Amino acid sequence: MNGMKQLLDNSVFELIPMKTTLEKAQILPAGTKVSVTASPAKGMDATVDLVEQFVQMGLDVVPHISARLTKSKSELSEIVTRLDESGVSEIFVVGGDADDPGDFFDAMALIRHLDTLDHPFTRIGVTGYPEGHPSIGDELIIQALIDKEPFASSVTTQMCFDVEAIRSWILRIRGLGIQLPVLIGIPGVTELTKLIGISARIGVGTSLRFLSKNRSLATKLLRPYAPDDLVESLAELAEDPELGVTGLHIYTFNQVEATFDWYRHQRASLA
């Protein structure tokens, strides 16, 4: 039970900048921690614009800064200035999916340059991949995490449904001396067919097989997936102090109301 409480008490809700995102987020209470992604289709301006509006709503906002979407050092300086003026103190740095990067080829390049700036960020999150990356070799991914650790305050995993794969990955990075607190990425309440498509796109093979096995009946495809069983299993990891699992990063896919209703129900069940 303590593990479950820890996970829920330290949850971050990831939102995607879209036309309806601001409206959907109105149901979130002030103080809710939200993460705002960076979209290749909309650019970094859309992320920062939404962050500024969320701050005005009283949300605790963690912007994604995408290395490959940030085209120049001057653009990064402008982003830092705007986030500073909004009072943002935590960011999440990702490599990003843009095909034509500018000054920053990957997350590490952006982090190194950020370290030369007078920035306000006291916490910097980075990414981890328990099931590997679809286009980058495993050794390169692990080395990148080793390189980022001195600059980072936490690592958030890619969405994963395989608890043992998560456990093995954490034990591996701990064995390499990486001691960053881990937030585990899980989906919120999402249509199962959509979740299967997303899993295939981001290359989480074991998780995709898990989902495929669980859609055998046509009626299941009509019901949304909810991560109850997954979170219950992950609570065991949070109860092991050697693993350093501190919370959840919930990929809402902008299904904000359904996901937050699920979250509130989980919290109420612990009372």
If you had to describe this structure to a student in words, what would you say it looks like?
With 271 residues, the chain is an alpha/beta fold. 44% of the residues lie in helices and 18% in strands. It contains 12 helices and 10 strands. It has helices at 2-9, 21-24, 44-56, 73-85, 107-114, 138-148, 163-175, 192-202, 205-213, 218-221, 228-238, 256-270, and strands at 11-15, 33-36, 60-66, 90-94, 123-128, 154-157, 182-187, 190-191, 224-225, 245-251. Strands 1-2-3-4-5-6-7-10 form an 8-stranded parallel barrel, surrounded by 5 helices. Strands 8-9 form a two-stranded antiparallel sheet. β4 (90-94), α5 (107-114) and β5 (123-128) form a beta-alpha-beta unit. α8 (192-202) runs antiparallel to α9. It is globular and about 50 Å long. The N and C termini lie close together (11 Å).
Mean pLDDT: 91
Shape: globular
- Give me the secondary-structure category: alpha/beta
Strand order across the biggest sheet? Answer: 1-2-3-4-5-6-7-10
**Separation, N- and C-terminal Cα atoms:** 11 Å
> Helix coverage percent of residues?
40-55%
| Strand element count | 10
Note poorly predicted spans: none
**Radius of gyration over alpha carbons?**
18 Å
Helical run tally: 12
Can you summarize the main beta sheet?
Answer: 8 strands, parallel, barrel
Amount of beta strand: 15-25%
- Succession of helices and strands: HEHEHEHEHEHEHEEHHHEHEH
